C-alpha cells in the first residue's frame, strides 16, 4: 500500500516553532513530543521522524539536499549543541533534551496503543537482540519483523516488501545519519507504516553493545562527552573538529542577525535560499493538518 506524504504549514500546536539554520523545528517538552508522535499512529500517510543533534545540523548546513530532506520530517532536538544554537539564535533553549535513545523507550512505555514494530538496521546479531529486548521490556507491543542494515541497493525492493507485508505502526531505521533519513524520505511513498523514525545508534545501545552515559549526563544533553571518552578514536573528529565548525557556523548566523536584524541568508552557510523562508514546517499527516496538532 502506498501513501504519499502530505505537507502542511499549520502551526497551531502549543509547541513554539523556531528556525535553526536551515531547519524548521518546534520547542517541544517531552510530553508534547510523545503526544505528537503518538497521534500519528492513526491510519494515514507515513510520518517521518528524525532526531537532530549538532552533527545532524552541521550536515544539513553543508548539504542542501539533506536540509530539504529533513524539512519534511517531524524534527526533535537532541543534545546541548541544539540548546546553544537555539539560545544564541532565538533567545531560549529547548524545554528538554529529546535524544532518541531515551525517547524511543519512553514512547514504547507511554503510548496507550499497543504497537506493531519493525526494526531495520545494525548488524544481524544486534537487531535480533533488540527485538528480544523490546518484547521483554515492552510486552504490550509486538516486533513483527526485523532485518539488518547491510543490504545491497538492488535488495531494497525486497526490504520494502518485507516491511509492507506486516504493515507496522512504527518503523525504526538505524542506519546512521544521513543514510537513514535519505532512506526514509526516498521510500516514504512506498512504505506501508504509520511512523518511520531514524534512530541512529539506538540499536547498539539497546543491545548493550555500546554503554550509555549516566542519566544525569543524558538529561543535561551531555551524552556526547561520555561517548567521546569511551570511543575517542571513532568519535574524536565529530566531537572536536565538527563541534568547532558547528559553533562557528552558528556564530556566523548570529552575526548575520546583528547585521541584518533577522536570520541571515542561508547562502552564508552554503545555500542560495534564505533561512527565514524555512520558518513554516512541512510534515506528513493523516488529514492534511499538522501531525503535531491533536485530533
From TrEMBL:
Q: Does the keyword Cell inner membrane apply?
A: no
GO molecular function ontology, one term from the record: hexosyltransferase activity
Q: What top-level branch of life does the organism fall under?
A: Bacteria
Which keywords has UniProt assigned to this entry?
Glycosyltransferase, Transferase
For this protein, the record's InterPro entries field holds: WecG_TagA_CpsF
Note whether Transferase occurs among the keywords. yes
> Which NCBIfam families does its entry note?
wecG_tagA_cpsF (TIGR00696)
State the name under which the record lists this protein.
WecB/TagA/CpsF family glycosyltransferase
